Input
Amino acid sequence: DAKTTQPNSMESNEEEPVHLPCNHSTISGTDYIHWYRQLPSQGPEYVIHGLTSNVNNRMASLAIAEDRKSSTLILHRATLRDAAVYYCILPYNQGGKLIFGQGTELSVKP
Amino acid sequence: DAMVIQNPRYQVTQFGKPVTLSCSQTLNHNVMYWYQQKSSQAPKLLFHYYDKDFNNEADTPDNFQSRRPNTSFCFLDIRSPGLGDAAMYLCATSRGATGDTQYFGPGTRLTVL
Output
């Protein structure tokens, strides 16, 4: 099964961009890359997903490497409310199920 | 406006006393999931229903059961809770089961005394 690797933690300053990396070197051609985040004391929430092309939505952007072995979630202007654990997941490879790794804990400083 | 609702938000039970957690959804989604999240750990999938078809994860203990009486409701039953079952229990839904976006409820925090 393809696995993802993320840094355990990252820090950012408020109103600055944040780039959260994810490595998935054994990704297969049909694997979508999904990102979820979990704010403190809440259930996880969907952020964004993509296959090959870069994707944008109101929450974030997803930049996918040309070889698809890595991706980066971009928060353009971090706010204090973006402090959360961010998970990079490849659900198709896992039978459509979400298998959460440890994720990256993002802290945002005012 | 709530889409996935979990009741209660906090549940306290005694060691060995059966407990039931409830989840309901207003999305009319086909799939409902139950996850267990222990302190400082990532959520772990216990099982899911695709319509009425139950799918258990291989490492889910027999102590955990689930019921889905209709599309909107799903229950998690813990037959004999142990201290190690204290955790946040998360319910989620998705339209399909092939990587569709999952929508999570706020969770029920279970304490076992």
